[in-house]
Amino acid sequence: MLKTENLTVGYANSEVLTDVNLNVHKNEILCIIGPNGAGKSTLLKTIATYLTPKKGAVYINSSKIHNLKPSQLAKEMAVVLTDRINPANMTGYDVISIGRHPYTGLLGRLSKKDKEIIMHSAKLVNATKLLEKNFFEMSDGERQKIMIARALAQEPEILILDEPTSFLDANHKIELTLLLRKLSKKNIAIIVTLHDIELALRIADKMALVKDNKILAYGFPEDIMTTETVNYLYGLTEANYNEQIGYFELKNNYNQELTSEINLEVNSEVNSDLGLNKTGSEFDTNDVLLPKKVFITCGGGTGAKALRYFKKNGYDITVGILHENDIDYAISKTMEVNIISEKSFSNISGETFENAKKQLLNCDMFVYSNFPVGEINQKNNELVEFAKSQDIKIIKFDGSIDSLQNL
Ligand SMILES: Nc1ncnc2c1ncn2[C@@H]1O[C@H](COP(=O)(O)OP(=O)(O)OP(=O)(O)O)[C@@H](O)[C@H]1O
């Protein structure tokens, strides 16, 4: 339905993206993602004919899109950009009715059918309550809905949206992305840029990743959104993308530079809140402060919240004993913390158990969750008993961060 062929987009003195070859069919959503300034909006604006291609072409049903008359194009494509518009003294209904302009006659009078389509468009985006409301008295999220309803009133075959979720709260983001999913099944092809990759992954049929002046990867999101690609896409250094979960975790790169910065900035009391141990008896800003070491025994997802809590507070984490197919293992691995692990579905070996005990004794505190116990991880119960027999601070994590507060 729409395709770009060897397309180069950019401005008078710059080429922003070169050799872009994408296509999107009806009933499909193509999501474009990438870091700030990568060229997503420039690409969308070129597809929407607001910019002229520097090379190559965009085709809509085999016609060059830049050769179509605006009135003809308006019946095929509708565009919702992020630019905030403030139409003077217009209601939601008035704004949506702008979408009917390509179809109304010279006088712009709305027919019965036009009015029905306006009402239907408002209904589709769940905005019928906003029809009488003044557009500039609406919240950002309400305006976004009206702008999408306006685009739908054009009855386009292709809908282009630049960052449609940027002003929306979590619930409205999900509502909007589900709406796009629903619309895409009504014979519409959708091209959308999103910063929220978690949502993009869940609604996109195809994804184009933009970086280094080109399309870095293009295809099914499930295939192309690998840890390595997404880490590279955003140039991540202090977090990792987890391809199973489809999101990021902070990683264990507590470095000397960060430690020194904290050393200079905070007093010893705050350091203990940050999970730092003072090495000298007298506090001195030149002391090297080391992260406190915590050993976490968990499993089956019961450790996820504790892992994130300790990670963001700068603790040096050892976790174990986890089976390699455990969700807590997947999270810990993404964080790059020290993991004592056992092969999936195998009993914990004596050797692994002894290693865990040794590493536990090297920690400042021991935290264990209400992990599920079966035959193969029985030894984790023994590990808890072993910790209790040692002179080490022990906390039972009951799932609430409050239970960790008196560490
Ligand atoms: N009107 C313009 N004239 C010249 N250069 C521009 C213009 N608009 C954007 N650029 C440049 O083009 C590049 C790509 O910008 P673009 O807005 O397409 O990126 P983006 O991926 O949409 O970024 P963001 O995620 O921050 O919205 C940037 O280097 C930007 O400075």
| CATH level 3 topology of the largest domain | Rossmann fold
Q: Per DSSP, what share of the residues sits in E-state strands of 2 or more residues?
A: 15-25%
Radius of gyration over alpha carbons?
28 Å
Alpha-beta classification: alpha/beta
* Number of H/I helices: 15
Structural domain tally: 2
CATH superfamily placement of the largest domain: P-loop containing nucleotide triphosphate hydrolases
CATH class annotation of the largest domain? Alpha Beta
Sum up the overall morphology in one term.
elongated
Helix content: 25-40%
Q: Provide mean pLDDT, rounded.
A: 87
**Largest sheet report:** 6 strands, mixed
Cofactors and ligands present?
adenosine-5'-triphosphate
Spatial ordering of strands, largest sheet:
7-8-9-4-10-11
Oligomer: single chain
Runs in which pLDDT lies below 50 for 5 or more consecutive residues are none
The beta-strand count equals 20
Measured distance between first and last alpha carbons = 60 Å
Label the CATH architecture of the largest domain: 3-Layer(aba) Sandwich
Keywords: ATP-binding, Nucleotide-binding, Transport
Protein name: Iron complex transport system ATP-binding protein
GO molecular function: ATP binding
Pfam families: ABC_tran (PF00005)
